[in-house]
Amino acid sequence: MPSILPVGDPAPADGVLPAQAGSGAGGRRFCLYVHIPFCAVRCGYCDFNTYTATELGPGAAQDEYAGTVGGELDLAARVLEQSGVPSRPLSTVFFGGGTPTLLPAVDLARILDRARRLWQLEPGAEVTTEANPDSVTPESLQLLADAGFTRISFGMQSAVPHVLKVLDRTHNPARVPEAVRWARDAGLKVSLDLIYGTPGESLQDWEASLEAAIACGPDHVSAYALIVEDGTRLAAQIRRGQVPDIDDDDHAAKYQLADERLAAAGYGWYEVSNWARTEADRCRHNLAYWHGDDWWGAGPGAHSHVGGVRWWNVKHPVAYAGRLAAGESPAAGRETLDEATRQLEHVMLQTRIIDGLATAELGPQGRREVAGLIAEGLIDGAQAVRGRVRLTLQGRLLADAVVRRLLEP
User: Fold this and answer.
1) pLDDT by residue (tens digit) across 8-63?
2) CATH code for the domain defined by 19-290
3) InterPro entries in the record, alphabetically (predicted)?
4) Sequence spans of domains, the chain
5) Helices 175-185 and 138-147, interaxial angle, to 10°?
6) What is the pLDDT of residues 215-258, one digit of tens each?
7) How does strand 121-131 pair with strand 151-157?
8) Adjacent-strand bridge partners of 14
């Protein structure tokens, strides 16, 4: 969740949504994202809305946060009812950050219980928390599982100490398999998040990280190319020549190696940056984003989307807590998407997943582009004959360029 908020229309203090939000809601899943903005150390590459304890003053204490975000969940239930959005049980719940597991497990359980009492959970609902490997214990993981969490996503990033140092990651790589084992013992599904393309990371380093991740036997692996965001410490280090800049060819080689090694180990890609052992192991919460379902994002800087209405909360935890204490919505701004924008985003998101996009959903020029994209090896020809646009491996490397051509007017 990037820290820079978009520009939009003012959001009303009561948070009530336009009538459009409830239209067709019965055909969409409803999900909850909870942002936990706390980190032990702020990583030099991170542009997310996160804070260390020393950066926060009165009104944003970690030991008060579960109650504060619970207040937004109460407000969410009122706003949705007042806006005419029918109540639906939660399909997925995702705690992200930051490092959610810096909060005591009992606090995360309190927040989940509040959500369950307000909306209930679908049978078999997916409930995930992100975690750093050094922020969990066997006891905390068991408490989360007992509270209803089903899945944990560990920020492994790399298995190579000098790469972790550039990223300012503090965990010992040897802790990762241990944390995975504890999660398994608690009955949780496990995902590992990796980052490739860190300055100074060789292809051999990346291969070692992949092999270490696979050896842990997770259900799911995410592999993201490092993006150097303006304003981060890493961007300043690159600008000063302290570390080398990232390289697109290096990213491509490492992505291809990831796909090769993960496929050989039995993981199938289902979104450009995500692989799972089976369809049941795919992250259903992220799929809800890519399919354009509804979600409420709770927490400072969190983004929400319901029925083509999108809004985002104030960034700072103190301002966030102050709005809620005053009985006001923490929303800083919002936008109502028109049909053209919703169609554009639908094409962008559906093209990134393995199911692909129905060719019939493209405009006339986009459909004419398909033949050329097949000839260039970017779109699967056999799938196109069946009426679906599905990216090849080469197409995944150039996904943004493919989407731009498919959206030609």
Assistant:
1) 788 999 999 999 999 999 999 999 999 999 987 766 556 667 777 667 766 688 88
2) 3.20.20.70
3) Aldolase_TIM, Coproporphyrinogen-III_oxidase, Elp3/MiaA/NifB-like_rSAM, HemW-like, rSAM, rSAM_sf
4) 19-290, 338-409
5) 40
6) 999 999 999 998 766 666 666 676 777 766 777 899 999 999 99
7) parallel
8) none
